[in-house]
Amino acid sequence: MNLISHTVLRAEQSINRAASQVRQARSLPEVVRSMNPSVPPQVRPLVRSLPSYRNFQFALEQAAERLVKTQLEAVRKTIEPERGQLLQRYQCQEWICLRGNFPRLASYVDRQVQLIRNETQQPSWEEGPRTNYPKPR
Known about the structure:
68% helix, elongated, 7 helices
């Protein structure tokens, strides 16, 4: 086994360890911290062609999606004022990590948060629609 193949093997082992950590992650910051496994500089250009790297990228996406869906479901199950507090906490501590790392997932979260906020602002049937027009006399 020559030096290059040994170094590639070490890189694959590092990537597989990182993928395992990603699958066990319990928060989005943990997923983001695991995004850059340590790879020897001699083989960095080759890493993207490795099957383990593609599996690692897939694990990253799956873990982030799983966590986001679980968090959004938790928000939907809560009622006000806890819902607002939970949304604020997730936006400041969890979903902020999505911006530069998972842009498609970040826009999905933005849409879902807007839908959740619209649901809470819709009037109940008894109240009637909210309008700016004065009530007729």
